[in-house]
């Protein structure tokens, strides 16, 4: 494994070439290192997001979690391992039911914040993930909020303003890095009753070139939200 190989894998991922990045990882001679394991988890996780077959989505998500768990056990202070452990744990916990999802909220937040402390100044992706964490926690209904307070020992708090700050930080670090960041910037401004600001981001999202499932989600949701402005 070389730095050049890892860089090429990252470039494939950034270009939405998830299967190609997985194929390259599987050809590496050293696949047990933390840096390889979290990249393996990332590729498998995004393949799960592309699948339209529920059983396959779940299988791939759980496989990704196994890989990222190995990465974190290998090096608990690794930025990528913490970042992707938080993201994949959140999705796996959702598969395991509402109670498990709530129980893992604090753990997900812990790994996101650890990743921010390790490389928050130059990685836009971790700020987007933290933004989604805040956004989704802010939009839960009263019943779910009461359940969170009952189930979670130290339930995290969040607001749309917190989420907006994270998405804005992500966009500042690397403008246009991820279509869903535009969508969530628009959604945050809508939640904060700032339609003019929301429109700017939603128009970008509605015009995005569709290269993967997240692009499709962005384009469709942004288009629908624009109709309501």
Automatic annotation (TrEMBL):
Protein name (Swiss-Prot/TrEMBL): Regulator of microtubule dynamics protein 1
Presence of the UniProt keyword Repeat in the record: yes
Entries under Pfam families matching the protein: RMD1-3
Locations listed in the record: Cytoplasm, Cytoskeleton
One function term, GO molecular function aspect: microtubule binding
Keyword annotations from UniProtKB, A to Z: Cytoplasm, Cytoskeleton, Repeat, TPR repeat
Highest taxon, organism lineage: Eukaryota
Gene source species: Anopheles culicifacies
Assembly notes: Interacts with microtubules.
Keyword Nucleus in annotation: no
Record's GO cellular component terms: mitochondrion; mitotic spindle pole; spindle microtubule
PANTHER family xref list: REGULATOR OF MICROTUBULE DYNAMICS PROTEIN (PTHR16056), REGULATOR OF MICROTUBULE DYNAMICS PROTEIN 1 (PTHR16056:SF16)
Signal peptide from the UniProt entry: none
């Amino acid at each position: 494994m070389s730095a050049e190989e890892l860089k090429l894998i990252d470039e494939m991922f950034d270009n939405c070439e998830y299967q190609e990045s997985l194929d390259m990882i599987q050809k590496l001679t050293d696949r047990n290192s933390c840096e390889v394991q979290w990249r393996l988890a990332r590729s498998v996780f995004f393949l799960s997001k592309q699948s339209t077959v529920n059983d396959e989505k779940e299988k791939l998500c759980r496989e990704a979690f196994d890989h990222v768990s190995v990465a974190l056990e290998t090096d608990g202070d690794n930025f990528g391992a913490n970042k992707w452990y938080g993201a994949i744990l959140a999705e796996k916990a959702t598969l395991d039911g509402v109670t498990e999802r709530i129980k893992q909220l604090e753990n997900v937040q812990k790994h996101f914040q650890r990743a921010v402390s390790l490389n928050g100044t130059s990685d836009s992706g971790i700020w987007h993930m933290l933004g989604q964490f805040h956004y989704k926690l802010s939009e839960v209904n009263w019943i779910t909020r009461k359940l969170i307070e009952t189930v979670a020992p130290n339930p995290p708090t969040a607001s749309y303003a917190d989420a907006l700050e994270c998405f804005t930080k992500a966009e500042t670090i690397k403008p246009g890095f991820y279509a869903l960041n535009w969508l969530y910037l628009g959604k945050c401004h809508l939640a904060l009753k700032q339609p003019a600001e929301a429109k700017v981001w939603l128009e970008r999202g509605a015009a995005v070139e569709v290269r993967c499932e997240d692009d499709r989600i962005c384009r469709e949701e942004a288009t629908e939200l624009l109709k309501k402005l």
